[in-house]
Specification:
The protein has about 270 residues and is α/β, with parallel strands linked by helices. Helices cover about 50% and strands about 10% of the residues.
Amino acid sequence: MPGCHDAISARLCQQAGFPTAFMSGFAVAASRLGLPDTGLISVTELLEQGRDICSAVSIPIWGDGDTGFGNAMNIKRTVRDYARAGFACIMLEDQIAPKRCGHTRGKTVVSHEEALLRIQAAVDARNEGTDILIMARTDARATHGIDEAIARARQFHELGADINFLEAPESLAEMRRYCREVPGHKVANLIEKGKTPIPSHDELEQMGYKIAVYPLTLLNVSIQAMQHSLAVLKQDGRLPPTLDFETLTSVVGFPEYYAEEQRYQQQPPEDK
């Protein structure tokens, strides 16, 4: 499951044949605000970006819901708002607000009891009729160790979370232990040169993972491509290698627009 950060990156995921994609909070904070993923982006901004993303594609989109933005009642509202925005799944985590990217330093998490209450509130919102899946994430590995992280993930599953997610295990052994000791559908969060090893898809499946998410790959390569293109332009004004204009217009949907425009073209009156 690739990460996306705006409508065009989501469309590219769909055009590439992926059955689903993940709206990364890190990537949205970077692309929308030019800011780090340290809790600076608001729920309103995430929802606005999410509506644009979900409306641009027909594949289901998973959304980063950070900490849920408050207490249990806030979390229930966030879950409902994400469903109304068009998300198929919301990810919620147990960090203390303001949160930060799971592979960076300075993280802190709420108590074990509060972490469970957060997921209970989200599950209750789903069970009360909100049409959305709940992905429960724990960042406790970095602060309390692997034992506490596994205990939280196991209890998230017991509470009824549809998917559980232990963030930033630091070895293949920890990944295998997590999969062995925690039931249910599990996510591997794979960040280039982050804290977690990046096994092959076959290896992940053998461990017991159901989903591999690559939340920052598209943001990474787009920044790299833009930096290279800007350097070439600044140096001597040469155009760097790019898509031809016809391909670009196709990617953003001009052919479909032209077809619909033709459908509604006013026909000249017939001569009498």
